[in-house]
Design a protein that fits this description.
Elements (H helix, E strand, L loop, with lengths): L7 H5 L4 H16 L14 E3 L11 H7 L3 E3 L8 E7 L14 H17 L4 E7 L3 E8 L2 H11 L10 H9 L7 E6 L5 H13 L3 E8 L1 H5 L6 E4 L6 E4 L1 H25 L3 E6 L4 H12 L1
Helix pairs in contact: 2-4, 4-5, 6-7, 7-9
Length: 293
């Protein structure tokens, strides 16, 4: 598969999200066998090795004939992991610059790729989108047809409303009865105390948590032309200014905020990853794999 498909600009020019996600995962799995992560478990199958106590009737004798090893067929209820991916669908996620995907589109691509990667290991995966509320919650399942159903649903969604991460997560946390992996993809443009409270709650319930904080490169560099109108995408407040006069203070504020989010994650033993929308998807996947290794 062409390396170009890992490029977000190329992926953004293609229409079928499900097909893109499948191809990217297939290319990633092929590439990972040639990488330093070769020792990581990438044998994606519907079987697991026989363990004492397993029912003999579940042994796959055809596999035994080929490998001389006992494997049992793994059913949906036996999945090792239950993962829920939360995607921020607030208005600020619709921002993009140049030919890059919007933060929301990048988040959808990344979530879809992660779903296929997780599902390929016969683990259960579900999804939710949130802004001031939880808009869609599809609980984890391990059927591959379910992933296709989620992706089709995602393609029909668009960013809207302001962010209220605390209110959103309080709505849904109680629905996640079993301990599992929680992945949150967001710019985290919200009250830092609310973010901390949500993460405290998730860790208190013994969920493993991975954060992907997503930015457009221009939100970090702040390289805008002279005299522009800066508009808050969530409340429509507008400021006409010269960005060169604000760049230093802006940079300090952004770095300070990112460091606060990182610090919360570090203290709660949460995996933090910063992602830019010009970053190839395989780099984001390697970050995920390295944390899961």
């Amino acid at each position: 598969m062409s390396k170009d498909l890992f490029n977000p600009e190329v992926a953004n020019s293609l229409s079928n999200l499900e097909l893109k996600a499948k191809h990217i995962v297939e290319g990633f799995i092929t590439g990972i066998h040639k990488s330093p992560f070769h020792g990581y478990s990438v044998e994606f199958s519907e079987h697991r090795q026989y363990r004492p106590g397993d029912e003999i009737r579940h042994i796959d004798w055809q596999v035994f004939g080929r490998t001389n090893k006992f494997y049992v067929k793994q059913f949906e209820e036996e999945t090792n992991l239950r993962c829920t991916i939360f995607i921020d669908s607030s208005k600020s996620m619709s921002y993009y610059s140049n030919n890059l995907p919007s933060k929301y589109n990048y988040a959808m691509y990344l979530a879809s790729i992660l779903m296929y990667l997780i599902n390929s290991q016969r683990d259960a995966v579900g999804i939710a989108t949130f802004n001031k509320n939880i808009n869609n919650y599809m609980p984890p399942r391990s059927k591959s047809s379910y992933v296709a159903q989620i992706i089709k649903h995602l393609e029909s969604t668009e960013p809207s409303n302001e962010t209220n991460i605390f209110k959103s997560f309080i709505e849904v946390i109680e629905k996640i009865k079993k301990r599992g992996l929680i992945i949150i993809i967001s710019d985290f443009f919200d009250n830092i105390k609310d973010i901390e409270n949500v993460l405290n709650n998730l860790r208190h319930k013994n969920h493993e948590v991975i954060l992907f904080q997503i930015f457009d490169p221009s939100e970090i560099s702040f390289d805008f032309a002279n005299n522009v109108n800066l508009i808050d995408m969530e409340n429509n407040q507008e400021i006409k200014t010269n960005p060169t006069l604000l760049k230093k203070d802006y940079s300090n504020l952004v770095n300070d905020y990112i460091n606060k989010v990182k610090s919360i994650c570090y203290n709660k033993k949460i995996d933090y990853n910063m992602i830019l929308t010009n970053e190839d998807f395989d780099k984001a996947l390697l970050k995920f794999i390295s944390k899961r290794k």
